[in-house]
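mind reviewing this stuff:

——
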Amino acid sequence: MKTRSRRWRRRYYDLFSRFYDRFIELHARKDESGTRSFLVQSAGLENIEKQRVLDVCCGTGAVLLAFAGRNCRGNFFGCDFSRGMLRAARQKDPDGRVFFIQANAARLPFADNSFHAVSCSHALYELKGEDRVDALHEMKRVVRNDGVVLIMEHEAPTRPLAGFMFRLRLLAMGSDDARDFMASGLKPFQKVFPAVTLRHSPSGKSKLICCRK
């Protein structure tokens, strides 16, 4: 049953990849770029010349390309289980600044302590309970001891259209599980990481959970 569900979800995201950027544009409007910049700045990597960054559930690559745009000598990796999402991401990166890899967030194909920063933007709530917990442990495993894991999640949308689209997406993902996770605050992160802090994006539409070993 779990394999069948994962296969369905992959097909859903392969299809959704064709409309994903438009969906984000409708939801975020002018705040999209500012929210990405806020996440990148929060990583605090300005003084690391050869930074290594991983974006988990990278989607069409916007966050990781924002990281890469600030450091031409870094190594940047994005992973997603959807081939459609990765195809769209690679189309945005004709110069090959980023390595896009098909992988399961709950079983990352990277060595321990590999990255200065690991991000996951507006995606963790879409994983199912067990996979979500495993993904958090995997992010903790691959981040350096002096690194940071940055989890960006939605605040509840206030505009009617955005709220409707968001609820529709929750329904497609399994609304009860996603809703419970989003209502649980910092508890899921505090069970995995000893140091967890919360920040809010300038637009107020997203929250950023900063986690350290």
Summary: The longest strand covers residues 143-154.
